[in-house]
Amino acid sequence: MLLFWTWDSRANRVLDRKMFEEDLQNLDPTSVSNGALRFCSPFLVNALLAVGRLYTTNSATYSVPSDEFTRGEAFAKEARRLRILERSETSLPFVQGLAIFYHYEGNFGTLESTIDITNTCYEQYKKLHLKDLIRKRVSATAGIQERREAQALSWIGWGFYIHENYFVGPMNRRKTLRKPDIPKLWQDAAQSSPEGEYNDYWWFAYPVSSTPQRSFRKEIFEAECDLIEIFEDIMDFLAPTKSDSNPFKAPEQALKLYRRLITLKYTLPEFLQAESSTLPTALQFYVNFDLILMSILRPFDDIAKDQFGGLDPKATSQFYASHIMSTIWTFRALYTWTTLTLGPCK
Questions:
Q1: Which CDD domains does UniProt cross-reference here (predicted)?
Q2: CB under 8 Å to 345, separation ≥6 — which residues?
Q3: Handedness of CA 210, 216, 222, 227 (dihedral sign)
Q4: Which of 145, 191, 261, 292 has the highest CB neighbour number within 10 Å of its CB?
Q5: Do 286 and 320 touch, CB atoms closer than 8 A?
Q6: Is the residue at 61 inside a domain?
Q7: Is residue 206 part of a domain?
Q8: Residue 272 structural domain
Q9: How many structural domains comprise the chain?
């Protein structure tokens, strides 16, 4: 499980680790929720363990010792069995499990199963009505546990907004999840527990190193939220709902979106600037950033520089593609493998 928390900065965005681990420790996995809010379930646990095994080449995790493509297979089989049992109830852990298990099926499952998980995940997510669940927990009379649940749900809601990019981004599709009408409660330091109390306040490169460093978890998450808000606007522009709209006749609008991305890039905190980034989550962030920059430039490859603010879209897009490869090699030099940062490029 530690492999998952250490290396997977994609799927873990839809989880609140503290609430998950509390329920993992305290809940009876055979009990019925009866509509009560939970942050853990058997399906979610097995999905998480299956995905965590993607980040190891230890043959002890293979179902077939000589076949690395069977790593995590035992947990995946159990997750598939439990998915059938839990699907009758629309619950937060079930939807979280689907979002996480997508990354396993996308690597080792069938195309049919991957698409089915994707569709089911976001259909079920919309039925959760997280905004209503949060509203009930932020009243003046709310207790400490209710406020903590509200913060967790706020994080999870924005996490799903970010996570959907891994589905729609590579296919240049519009986002189905719009910007959440949910307050970013995790930003409220007065209402939050001290960050040092959380297991993910610190990060170390398990099993490569045991030297801890600040994870900058909240700061990077906030930057991801800002980035995906711009991505939503980009895809609304490139894939308009009105049939008479032709974005390719409006390079000036594409240039405005590109400049919004560049403005965001240069207003990021120092530790998240490309030259200073060494955390896997920060390197992952820059891979996503460059892919989104390319998404607004590539459709205008044939546009002359004088029509695009003096910028050559094709050459600039090629520059960002080269920067992605440089980021991947930086990751490999630091941590000896390429699994994490290659994820968005698949």
A1: fungal_TF_MHR (cd12148)
A2: 287, 291, 324, 328
A3: negative
A4: 292
A5: no
A6: yes
A7: no
A8: 218-346
A9: 2
